[in-house]
Write a structure and sequence with these properties.
The complex is a heterodimer of chains A (about 1000) and B (about 425).
Chain A: H1 2-17, E1 35-44, E2 50-59, E3 62-67, E4 76-80, E5 85-88, E6 90-95, H2 141-149, E7 152-157, E8 164-167, E9 169-172, H3 179-182, E10 183-185, E11 190-193, H4 208-226, H5 235-242, E12 248-251, H6 255-268, E13 272-275, H7 284-290, E14 293-297, E15 303-304, H8 309-312, H9 317-325, H10 329-335, E16 340-343, H11 350-362, H12 367-374, H13 376-381, E17 399-402, E18 413-418, E19 421-424, E20 435-441, E21 444-451, E22 458-463, E23 466-468, E24 470-475, E25 478-485, E26 490-499, E27 502-503, E28 506-509, E29 515-518, E30 521-522, H14 525-537, E31 563-571, E32 578-587, E33 590-595, E34 604-607, E35 612-615, E36 617-622, H15 651-657, E37 661-666, E38 674-677, E39 679-682, H16 689-692, E40 700-704, H17 707-710, H18 724-749, H19 753-758, H20 766-775, E41 780-785, H21 788-800, E42 807-810, H22 818-824, E43 827-830, H23 848-855, E44 859-861, H24 872-881, H25 887-892, H26 896-901, E45 919-922, E46 933-938, E47 941-945, H27 946-970, E48 977-978
Parallel strand pairs in A: 1-4, 1-5, 6-7, 11-12, 12-13, 13-14, 14-16, 15-48, 31-34, 31-35, 36-37, 40-41, 41-42, 42-43, 43-44
Antiparallel strand pairs in A: 1-2, 2-3, 5-17, 7-9, 8-11, 9-10, 17-18, 18-19, 20-21, 20-30, 21-22, 22-23, 24-25, 25-26, 26-27, 26-28, 28-29, 31-32, 32-33, 35-45, 37-39, 38-40, 45-46, 46-47
Helix pairs in contact in A: 4-5, 4-6, 9-27, 18-20, 18-21
Chain B: H1 2-14, E1 31-34, E2 37-39, E3 45-46, E4 50-54, E5 57-62, H2 65-68, E6 73-76, E7 81-84, E8 86-91, H3 128-133, E9 138-143, E10 150-158, H4 164-167, E11 168-178, E12 183-185, E13 196-198, H5 202-221, H6 228-231, H7 234-238, E14 242-247, H8 250-262, E15 268-272, H9 280-285, E16 289-293, H10 308-318, E17 323-326, H11 337-346, H12 351-358, H13 360-365, E18 383-386, E19 398-403, E20 406-407, H14 413-425
Parallel strand pairs in B: 1-6, 2-7, 8-9, 11-14, 14-15, 15-16, 16-17
Antiparallel strand pairs in B: 1-4, 2-3, 4-5, 7-18, 9-10, 10-11, 12-13, 18-19, 19-20
Helix pairs in contact in B: 10-11, 11-12
Classes of the chains: A alpha/beta (about 1000), B alpha/beta (about 425).
C-alpha cells in the first residue's frame, strides 16, 4: 500500500513538472489555450489605482487586460469573484526559501585557520560572490503554502551565509507550475551581511569592522582585477565583476549595522537595499543623509509575559519601549521620505506577518505605502518592475484574492493565482461560521461565540454572563456541541448542519431523552464588525523616543547655552594654577571668560561656591561605546577602524559622564601587533555618531606587544608571532612593505597623464595606506606595552623607519626605560596601580607614573575599563599617594596630559579662553575619594546633572510600570506574549576577541 | 621623634631580601602611640589619644599623656591618625599569585561540594600580592576558596607571617556556599544571544544543596564511617562555623537564607548582596549580616542608578544591618579596600561608620570581635599610623604598622623597585 501511494505521488509530480520542450511519455502533449477572466472584482492594479466591479483577463500567466466591461474572448473560463478583492502578489526580498542551510563547521582545535579553504577564489572564504543559490535550491511546498497565506506569491531567495553571500533566485510560489516555470530569475541579486560563513573556520574577519574592511578591500580589488593586473585567476573577483550591475541586498542585524551598511554602500557605490532592524525611527536623520533604501522587518516584539515579576524586573526600559514603539517604525520611515519595502524575515508565520502589516497601518502607515512596500518597491529593487508588483497588461498574472480590503482585520485570504494556476488558501473547504450567535435549547437562552472555524473552531458558550462548559466539534460541515448542566453534571447533546448559508436549524437530545430543536441566530454582521473594529481601534499610547532611546536618554537633543559659573575653585591646568573664588563664563560651547565678578545678562548663572570646577577628564584608553573592539583574524588589522563601529547608545557613556569624563579615545584591542584605527569621541550622550566624533582629532592607531599578541594566555600556537622576537619582525616586515608600497604609488603618480593611461596603477591596499600614514607622520600610534625590552624595541623600530612613537599605553615597566622614552619623545598612558594579573606585569608598580613624570615623560592615567573610567579622578590621586606627585600635576594626568598625547590640547584639557567648554563641577576636592561630579558639561551643554538623577530614575520607574500595564492590555495586538529576557550589551576590554 | 627613627632603622636592616619582607619580631618593648587621632573602629574617634600595647595586646586606650611615660617607646604621632588594621573579607589572598599563570593559582578545587577543602593549607605566606596589601592598611584577610557550589572552608589570616600556621587568626571560620544564579547568559561565542535568560538548572541545583545539607546533618548524629565532606559540616550544625551564602539577587538571598534556616544552620552571612537593599526587612528579621560587594563595579542593568553600587552600603547601614566589604574582584585591587570604604562614605555612610565596616564589623562577621577589630584594651595590637585620612588615597600614607604588637615592614617588591629606579635617574 505504501508503495502505491509513493507511486501516485511521483506520477502527480511528473505531470506537474512537464515543460513544453520536455518529452512526454505518460500521455499526449497539450498546450494551454484558455483565457481566464476574474469578474466582478475590486482590482488593485498597484498601490494607488483601484477598479471596482472590474474584470481581470489572463492567459497562461500573463495579464491580457484589466478593466470594466471587457470583451472576453470566447475561450474564456469565468470566475465570478462577487466583489472580492484582487491584489498583485506580494514579493519577499530577503528569504532563504528552499535553500539548504550550510552546515556549521565543528571541531576547531586550538589553532585558528588563516588560509582560505578554496583554490582559485578570493583569499577569504567568507566572500562567496561566485556562489548561486540555485545550486542548493529545492522548492519547499510547505513554506510556500504558509507564505501564500500572507499574500506572498514571489520570493527572492538566497543562501544566508557569509559576508558576500553570492546571488539569489526569484521563485514563484506556485506548486502547480513545473519546476522551471517557477524560476523567474536564476541570478537575481547579490546578497551581503557582516556575518561570517558558518561553513568556514577561516579566522578573518572576526568582527564587524573587519567585515566592513573586507567588503571595501574586495571592491578595490575587483576594480584592480578588472583592469587585468592580476597574474593569477580569481573566480570570486570575476563573479563580482560580472555581477556588478545586479541589485545588491544587505542583511543588517541591528540598527547600527544598518547605518554601517549604508556607509559602505555610499563609499563603494554599491547601492545596497538594506534589510533593517525595526528601530530605524531612532536614526531617521542619519538614514536620510545616507540615502538608503530599506527593507523593513515586521517582527514586532511580542508583549513580555507579565505574570513573572522576578523576571519582569530584569527587563530594561529600552526593551519595554522597543515593544511599545515597534509598530510606528514603518510610518516613521515612510513619513521621513525614505524608500522601503517590507520583509517577513523574523515573523514566525503568515498570520503574524499579515497581522503586523495591519498593525503598521493601524499605527499610522498609509495603506498605499504598505501595499507599495510589498509590491512595487520590491519589484523595483529587483529590477523587475516591468513584470512584477502590478496588474497591468503584459505583467505577470500573479495575484491573490481576498474577501475584503487586505489591510482590514476582518478580511480573509481566499486564493492565490500564479501563472494561471489557482492555489486555495483555506486549508479545508469548511464554511467559515465565525461570529456571535444566540439560541434557545431546552428552555435556556445561550449566547455562543465561534472563532477560528476555518481551522480548529473554538466555541464559547454563555448563559447570561456565566460561561458554560462546552465540548464542541466542527468538522465535515457539521457542528456538534455537548453543553453541560452544571447542577446535575449532565449534558445536552446538540448538532446542526452547516451550509453556505451558515448554521442550519439543529437538533439534539436532552439528558432526559427529550428531542430538542434549536436555531442559532447570528448577530448582525454590521454589529459584529463594529464590535471588532471598536476592539481593534483601541490604540496603545506610544511613549516618546529619547536620545538615545534608553534609560537616562535626553528628552530632546540639548543645545549649548550661555552659562556662568560663580565662585568656584577653578583648576585651570594653565600657568594660573588653581584659582579660588573665580567665575567661568561659557558661550557658544566655548570658554568665554575666566575671572572674578564676571557677569552676562544672557547667562544662566550657576552658583558653585565651595565647589571645584575643572576641565573634563580625558580617557586615553577606553573600550566603551563600540560594537566591536578586536579584529583578531590577522596579526595586522590596520585596515579596520573603530570609527566604523561606534555605538552611541552605550549606557557606559552616561556612566562615564557621571564620573566627569568628557572625551575618550576608543582604542582597538590588543589582539594583534598592528591593531586597528581609533575613534576619538566626545561623550555627547544622545547625539549622532557623526556629532560625537571629536572634530578635527588627529588619526590614531593601536599597536600591541607582549603576551596578548603572542597569544600566550589562550594556548594558540599557529600564529606568528609566538615570541617577542617575532613581534619585532611583524613590524619590520609591515613597515618595509608599506615603504615599498608608497614608493610604487609615488612612482606611478609622478607619471604624465599619457603614461599613466598606459601603465597599470598599483593595487590599492587600505592596510598599506594606513601604515604609510604612520611612516609619513600623518597617523599616530598608541602602543599597548608592558615590559622594558619590548618598549625599547618598539622605539628602535620606529627610529629605523624614521618616525616617532606617539604613546605607549599600559607601559607598566615604563619606569625601567623612562630615560630612553624621554629621549625618544614618547608619551606614557598608564594605569595607576594595576599589576600582577599576568606574568608580564609582575614588576608593575604603582610608582610607575610618578617616576616617568619625574624623568620628564608626559604621563597620563587611563582606564581600559568601563568601570574605572568613572573614577579616574581617584586614580589621579594615587599619583599623589604613590610617589608624591603634586596635586596639580596629578590632576593633569587625567586631563591635560592625555589631551596632549591625543593632539587635542589646543581644544580641551584646560580651562582657557577659547577652548571647548568641557567642564566638571565637583562637590569636593577633585582628587578626594569623597568627590562626586555634580555636573558634566561638553561643548557648553550639561550632559550630566547629579541633581536630576533621582527624578529621572523615578520617572523611568513610572514609565516602566505604564508600559507593563500596556502590555497586559495590548497583549493580543501582537498575538500573545514572550517570556521576559534581559538585553545585555557585552563589555569590552583589550582582550575581547571581536 | 628619635624613637620613630629607631624603629624605622630596625625595619630597614631586617627587610633586606628577595622574598616577602621578613616578618616582624615579637613585641618585646612596650609601645605607646601618642597624640594621634584614634579611629577606634566602633564608630567613635578619640582626639589626642594615647594607645599603648604590650606583648601584642592593647593595654591602654585613652587621652592621659602621663600613661604614655610608662611605656618603653613613645611614638609621637600628633596630627596623624591611628586605625585598627583593616580586614579584607572574602578574598583569595595567598591562594593566587598571578591569575594568568595557572601554576600560581590554588583557589578553585575540582568538585561541587567541598567543605572539607581548606584554604589555610595553601595560603602562601610569602606572596608578593599579600605583601602589597600592608602599606595601605590591610593587615588581615579572610582567605576563601573559589568556585563550585560549596567551594570550601575559609580561614582568617594576618598578613605578616613565616608560614600559614603562624598566620592563622581563626582556622576554618566558615564554609562558602555559592547559591545558583536564577539567570544565565547566552553563549554568544556559539551565536546565542548574550541576553539574560532563566537558568534551567536552578531548581536542580537548589535540590542538590538541600540534599547535601540534609544528609550532612543526619550523618553528624552518627559520624561513621567517616565521610570527609559531611564531617566538615559539623561546625556548621553545631554553630561554631558560619555559612557564607554568596548571593547577589533578592531571590537568591531570600531562598538561600530560608533554606539554610530551615535546615538548622545557626549562622548565616550573605556575601555579595547586590540586591540586599530590596530585602532589608527580611535581613533584619533573620538578623543576617551582609558582606557587600565592593562598590567599584558597574550597575547590573542599564536602568540601574549609575551610582547604585556606591549607595548600597548606606541603605543597609541605615537599616541597622551589620555590613562589611566583599573584596572579590581583581585580586591585586584588594589593597584598595580603604578606598572602597571611602567611596561608600562619599555616598552617605558616615566616615567612622565606613571605618567600622573594615574593622569592628568585619571582625564581628568573622567571629573575631572579642580578639580584634577595634582599638580597645585587651584586643590584638594590630593597627597602623597613617599621615592622614586612611580612606582617601591622597592621605592614606602609612608610617608604621603593627600586627599583634610586631612592627611590620611597609616595604614591598614595589617600593624596592621604586627606590632602585628613582636612584638610577636621580629623581626622588
Amino acid at each position: 500500500m505504501r508503495k502505491l501511494i509513493l507511486g501516485l505521488a511521483l506520477l502527480v509530480q511528473t505531470t506537474v513538472n512537464a515543460q513544453t520542450y520536455f518529452p512526454k511519455n505518460d500521455g499526449v502533449k497539450t498546450t494551454p489555450s484558455v483565457y481566464q477572466a476574474f469578474t466582478n472584482a475590486t482590482i488593485h492594479l498597484d498601490a494607488t489605482q483601484t477598479l471596482e466591479g472590474a474584470t481581470l483577463l489572463e492567459k497562461n500567466g500573463t495579464v491580457i487586460a484589466v478593466g470594466k466591461n471587457l470583451n472576453l474572448p470566447k475561450n474564456t473560463t469565468v470566475h465570478n469573484l462577487n466583489g472580492q478583492h484582487i491584489y498583485p502578489s506580494f514579493i519577499e526580498l530577503n528569504s532563504s526559501f528552499g535553500v539548504k542551510k550550510p552546515k556549521r563547521v565543528t571541531g576547531s582545535g586550538r589553532s585558528a585557520q588563516y588560509e582560505p579553504s578554496r583554490v582559485g577564489y578570493y583569499w577569504n572564504d567568507h566572500i562567496k560572490s561566485d556562489y548561486n543559490a540555485l545550486q542548493d535550491f529545492n522548492y519547499d511546498g510547505k513554506t510556500a503554502k504558509d507564505m501564500r497565506k500572507a499574500g506572498f506569491g514571489l520570493v527572492n531567495t538566497h543562501n544566508a551565509d557569509g559576508i558576500h553571500r553570492g546571488t539569489s533566485v526569484v521563485v514563484a510560489l506556485a506548486d502547480e507550475l513545473p519546476a522551471g516555470g517557477r524560476i523567474l530569475s536564476a541570478k537575481a541579486a547579490e546578497h551581503f551581511s557582516f556575518s561570517r560563513s558558518v561553513a568556514s573556520r577561516q579566522s578573518y574577519p572576526s568582527s564587524v569592522m573587519g567585515a566592513m574592511a573586507l567588503i571595501r578591500q574586495f571592491y578595490y580589488d575587483s576594480k584592480w582585477y578588472a583592469n587585468g593586473q592580476s597574474t593569477t585567476k580569481d573566480m570570486a573577483l570575476e563573479a563580482a565583476i560580472a555581477q556588478r550591475g545586479l541589485p545588491k541586498i544587505f542583511e543588517a542585524k541591528n540598527k547600527l549595522d544598518v547605518l554601517r551598511a549604508a556607509k559602505i554602500s555610499k563609499e563603494m557605490g554599491l547601492n545596497f537595499a538594506v534589510k533593517a532592524s525595526g528601530q530605524e525611527y531612532e536614526i531617521l536623520d542619519e538614514l536620510k543623509v545616507a540615502k538608503a533604501t530599506l527593507i523593513l522587518p515586521l517582527d514586532f516584539p511580542k508583549a513580555y509575559d507579565t505574570n513573572n515579576p522576578t523576571l519582569l524586573d530584569q527587563i530594561t526600559l529600552r526593551q519595554l519601549r522597543l515593544w511599545n514603539q515597534a509598530p510606528i517604525n514603518p510610518a516613521k520611515v515612510s513619513n521621513a521620505g525614505i524608500p522601503f519595502a517590507f520583509t517577513s524575515t523574523g515573523t514566525k508565520s503568515a498570520k503574524e506577518f499579515i497581522n503586523n502589516v495591519r498593525l503598521a497601518v493601524k499605527y499610522g502607515l498609509s495603506e498605499q505605502k504598505a501595499l507599495a512596500a510589498l509590491t512595487a518597491v520590491p519589484a523595483n529593487i529587483l529590477g523587475m518592475e516591468k513584470q512584477l508588483g502590478a496588474l497591468k497588461p503584459g505583467y505577470r498574472a500573479n495575484f491573490f484574492v481576498a474577501s475584503g480590503p487586505v489591510f482590514d482585520t476582518t478580511s480573509k485570504m481566499v486564493a492565490h493565482w500564479i501563472g494561471g494556476k489557482k492555489h486555495d488558501i483555506a486549508s479545508t473547504n469548511k464554511v467559515n461560521i465565525d461570529g456571535s450567535y444566540t439560541f434557545n435549547a431546552a428552555d435556556t437562552n445561550y449566547t455562543m461565540t465561534i472563532s477560528n472555524s476555518s481551522e480548529k473552531a473554538k466555541v464559547q458558550l454563555k448563559q447570561d454572563s456565566t460561561a458554560i462548559k462546552t465540548i464542541a466539534d466542527y468538522s465535515s460541515n457539521e457542528l456538534k456541541l455537548l453543553v453541560q448542566d452544571k447542577a446535575s453534571d449532565t449534558y445536552l447533546r446538540l448538532r446542526a448542519d452547516v451550509t453556505d448559508n451558515g448554521i442550519e436549524t439543529g437538533t439534539g437530545v436532552g439528558p432526559d431523552g427529550r428531542a430538542i430543536r434549536w436555531e442559532a441566530s447570528k448577530e448582525d454582521k454590521a454589529v459584529a464588525s463594529q464590535k471588532k473594529a471598536a476592539k481593534t481601534a483601541n490604540k496603545r499610547e506610544i511613549v516618546p523616543t529619547t536620545f538615545p532611546n534608553t534609560a537616562y536618554g535626553n528628552k530632546s537633543r540639548p543645545t549649548p547655552k550661555v552659562l556662568l559659573f560663580k565662585n568656584a575653585t577653578v583648576w585651570t591646568n594653565e600657568e594660573a594654577g588653581i584659582l579660588e573664588n573665580t567665575d567661568v563664563l561659557v558661550r557658544d560651547g566655548k570658554i568665554a571668560a575666566v575671572g572674578k565678578n564676571l557677569s552676562d545678562a544672557a547667562a544662566e548663572v550657576i552658583d558653585v561656591s565651595g565647589k571645584h570646577l575643572t576641565s573634563g577628564i580625558v580617557d586615553e584608553h577606553s573600550h566603551i561605546a563600540a560594537s566591536s573592539i578586536n579584529e583578531g583574524g590577522h596579526n595586522s588589522s590596520a585596515e579596520v577602524s573603530i570609527e566604523d563601529v561606534i555605538d552611541p547608545d552605550d549606557i557606559n557613556i552616561f556612566r562615564n559622564l557621571a564620573g566627569g569624563v568628557t572625551t575618550i579615545q576608543i582604542l582597538h584591542g590588543s589582539a594583534n601587533p598592528i591593531g586597528g584605527r581609533s575613534a576619538i569621541i566626545k561623550l555627547k550622550w544622545g547625539e549622532t555618531i557623526e556629532n560625537m566624533k571629536f572634530p578635527g582629532a588627529a588619526p590614531f592607531i593601536k599597536f600591541a606587544l607582549g603576551e596578548n599578541v603572542k597569544q600566550s594566555n589562550w594556548g594558540s600556537y599557529s600564529r606568528f608571532p609566538q615570541t617577542r622576537m617575532g613581534v619585532e619582525q611583524v613590524f619590520v616586515d609591515h613597515f618595509q612593505r608599506a615603504k615599498e608600497y608608497g614608493a610604487a604609488w609615488k612612482k606611478y603618480n609622478a607619471l604624465s597623464a599619457r603614461k599613466k593611461a598606459r601603465t597599470p596603477a598599483p593595487r590599492y591596499d587600505v592596510e598599506m595606506e594606513t601604515l604609510l600614514e604612520i611612516i609619513e607622520g600623518k597617523r599616530f600610534i598608541s602602543c599597548h606595552s608592558y615590559v622594558q625590552s619590548e618598549i625599547n624595541m618598539m622605539m628602535k623600530v620606529a627610529e629605523q623607519f624614521g618616525f616617532r612613537m606617539n604613546t605607549f599605553t599600559h607601559i607598566l615597566e615604563g619606569y625601567k626605560v623612562a630615560d630612553k622614552m624621554k629621549e625618544h619623545g614618547v608619551a606614557a598612558s598608564t594605569f595607576s596601580d594595576w599589576w600582577g594579573y599576568k606574568y608580564e606585569v609582575k614588576d608593575a608598580i604603582p610608582y610607575n607614573g610618578a617616576i616617568m613624570h619625574n624623568v620628564g615623560v608626559n604621563v597620563a592615567f587611563n582606564s581600559d575599563s568601563a568601570e574605572m573610567s568613572r573614577r579616574l579622578n581617584q586614580e589621579a590621586a594615587k599619583a599623589v599617594k604613590y610617589g608624591g606627585v603634586s596635586e596639580e600635576d596629578a590632576w593633569k594626568f587625567v586631563t591635560l596630559n592625555p589631551a596632549k598625547m591625543l593632539h587635542i590640547d589646543d581644544k580641551v584639557g584646560s580651562i582657557k579662553i577659547g577652548k571647548n567648554a568641557d567642564l566638571v563641577v565637583w562637590d569636593n576636592h577633585p582628587l578626594s575619594i569623597y568627590a562626586k561630579a555634580e555636573k558634566t558639561i561638553v561643548d557648553g551643554i550639561v550632559y550630566y546633572d547629579a541633581a536630576q538623577l533621582d527624578a529621572t530614575i523615578q520617572a523611568q520607574q513610572k514609565e516602566k510600570e505604564q508600559l507593563i500595564q500596556q502590555m497586559i492590555q495590548f497583549k493580543s495586538e501582537t498575538g500573545g506574549s514572550q517570556p521576559p529576557r534581559n538585553m545585555q550589551k557585552r563589555l569590552f576590554h583589550c582582550e575581547t576577541m571581536d | 621623634m628619635k624613637y620613630i627613627i629607631t624603629l624605622l632603622i630596625s625595619i630597614c636592616t631586617l627587610s633586606y631580601g628577595a622574598a616577602q619582607q621578613t616578618p616582624g619580631a615579637s613585641q618585646t618593648q612596650r609601645i605607646a602611640i601618642v597624640g594621634a587621632t584614634a579611629h577606634i573602629g566602633d564608630g567613635t574617634v578619640l582626639a589626642n589619644s594615647v594607645i599603648g600595647f604590650t606583648n601584642g595586646k592593647i593595654d591602654y586606650v585613652g587621652t592621659d599623656k602621663n600613661k604614655a611615660a610608662a611605656y618603653d617607646l613613645q611614638v609621637e604621632a600628633t596630627g596623624k591618625h591611628v586605625y585598627p588594621g583593616f580586614i579584607a573579607t572574602n578574598s583569595p589572598l595567598g591562594l593566587v599569585e598571578i591569575n594568568a599563570v595557572r601554576a600560581s593559582v590554588d583557589s578553585d578545587e575540582l568538585g561541587d561540594f567541598l567543605p572539607h577543602v581548606r584554604s589555610l593549607v595553601a595560603y602562601d605566606a610569602e606572596s608578593k600580592t599579600v605583601e602589597s596589601m600592608r602599606p595601605n592598611g590591610v593587615l588581615m584577610a579572610q582567605v576563601v576558596p573559589q568556585g563550585g557550589i560549596i567551594s570550601g572552608s575559609s580561614s582568617v589570616m594576618q598578613l605578616d607571617a613565616w608560614n600559614w600556621e603562624d598566620a592563622v587568626l581563626r582556622a576554618d571560620d566558615g564554609i562558602h556556599l555559592n547559591w545558583p544564579r536564577p539567570f544565565t547568559r547566552g553563549r554568544w561565542w556559539l551565536g546565542e544571544s548574550p541576553d539574560l535568560k532563566p537558568n534551567k538548572n536552578y531548581p536542580t541545583t537548589v535540590k542538590k544543596i538541600k540534599a547535601f545539607f540534609t544528609q550532612a546533618k543526619a550523618y553528624i548524629n552518627d559520624p561513621q564511617p567517616k565521610h570527609l565532606p559531611y564531617h566538615a559540616m559539623k561546625g556548621v550544625f553545631e554553630g561554631t562555623q558560619q555559612v557564607f551564602l554568596h548571593a547577589q539577587s533578592a531571590k537568591q538571598i531570600k531562598e538561600g537564607v530560608r533554606l539554610l534556616k530551615q535546615l538548622g544552620v545557626a549562622k548565616v552571612v550573605v556575601v555579595g548582596g547586590h540586591q540586599a537593599a530590596a530585602v532589608v526587612d527580611f535581613l533584619k528579621e533573620h538578623k543576617i549580616s551582609v558582606v557587600i560587594s565592593q562598590p567599584h563595579r558597574l550597575p547590573q542593568s542599564d536602568d540601574e542608578d549609575p551610582k547604585y553600587t556606591f549607595k548600597l552600603a548606606r541603605i543597609l547601614l541605615d537599616n541597622g544591618i551589620t555590613t562589611s566589604i566583599d573584596v572579590s574582584g581583581r585580586l591585586q585591587d584588594i589593597r584598595n579596600l580603604p578606598f572602597y570604604a571611602g567611596s561608600f562614605a562619599a555616598y552617605g555612610v558616615p566616615k567612622e561608620k565606613a571605618v567600622q565596616m573594615l574593622t569592628h564589623d568585619a571582625a564581628a562577621i568573622l567571629g573575631l570581635e572579642d580578639q580584634l577589630g577595634t582599638l580597645s584594651e585587651g584586643k590584638d595590637a594590630t593597627l597602623f599610623i597613617s599621615q592622614g585620612d586612611a580612606l582617601d588615597m591622597r592621605t592614606n600614607i602609612l608610617e608604621l604598622a603593627f600586627i599583634q604588637g610586631r612592627q611590620i615592614s611597609l616595604d614591598t617588591h614595589h617600593t624596592k623597585l621604586w627606590k632602585r629606579y628613582s636612584n638610577k635617574y636621580g629623581v626622588n
